[in-house]
Design goal:
The chain contains eleven helices and twelve strands. The protein is α/β, with parallel strands linked by helices. It has one domain: Aldolase class I (TIM Barrel, Alpha-Beta Barrel). The model has no long low-confidence stretch (mean pLDDT 93).
């Protein structure tokens, strides 16, 4: 039976829990919660996984959340997938040695697919999550921006996802950037397409989720997980209710 995983998300910038709108660093909302305390609350609510993003590193490089990560791993039972600022193999190894369950690789996976594809084989498909975050251009093609979504991309989602699927990619996190932080619902057409095109890849939906109905809809679209951020932070969606929908029937 296929599992469906809820990933509560904590995005950190300057030590604070934040959410951006459509990846725009100038459109930031800060929340009063402490990142560690929030993670502990998610764990108490029943979460098994946490999606942790270093927004400072996503733009400037150099992962900054190692102290937080160490406390997460020592003080909770959460499995953690985390990224932001992965620029080379040393960054991947450092995160894995720190106890990360999956390293999230975004811009580098777009810019240097040959290198990253080799890491999928070297470290194992269960240790890597690719974040192929996408924006639709005026011609209807799904492009892949890089550098914390601040630079437009020329590469196309279809082509790159196919190349990674061919080398055994298992975990693909795909955000429709236009829906990120907008509470407008996930792009179900995009996820249906990805899940049908790459049936051996476990797709994680991200961007736009606002309620339990969206959690259910992403599952029915074929996704194997969903990342929940703003809806949880603003109390629009209760994590226990989302987790209940993720349990096998």
């Amino acid at each position: 039976m296929n599992t469906y995983t809820i990933y509560p998300a904590i995005d950190v910038r300057d030590g604070a829990v934040v959410r951006l709108v459509q990846g725009d660093y100038g459109r930031e909302t800060r929340y009063p919660a402490d990142p560690l305390a929030l993670a502990k609350q998610y764990a108490a609510d029943g979460a098994a996984w946490l999606h942790l993003v270093d927004l400072d590193a996503a733009r400037a490089g150099g992962y900054t959340l190692a102290p937080l990560l160490a406390r997460l791993k020592s003080e909770t039972r959460l499995k953690v997938q985390t990224g932001g600022g992965v620029r080379g193999e040393a960054d991947v190894e450092a995160l894995l040695e720190a106890g990360v369950d999956r390293v999230v690789i975004g811009s580098l996976a777009v810019r240097e697919p040959g290198r990253v594809a080799a890491w999928v084989g070297r470290y194992g498909a269960d240790r890597i999550t690719l974040a192929l975050d996408t924006r639709r251009d005026d011609e209807g093609r799904w492009r892949l921006p890089v550098h914390g979504w601040t630079e437009p991309g020329e590469k196309e989602l279809d082509v790159l996802a196919a190349a990674y699927a061919d080398v055994g990619l298992r975990h693909l996190l795909c955000t429709d950037i236009a829906r990120d932080g907008m509470l407008s619902g996930p792009n179900l057409d995009l996820y249906r397409y990805l899940c049908a095109r790459f049936p051996r890849v476990e797709v994680q939906a991200s961007g736009g989720a606002r309620d339990v109905a969206d959690v259910v809809a992403a599952r029915e679209a074929g996704c194997r997980g969903i990342v929940l951020g703003k809806a949880l932070l603003e109390g629009r969606l209760a994590l226990p209710g989302a987790l209940a929908e993720a349990r096998p029937c």
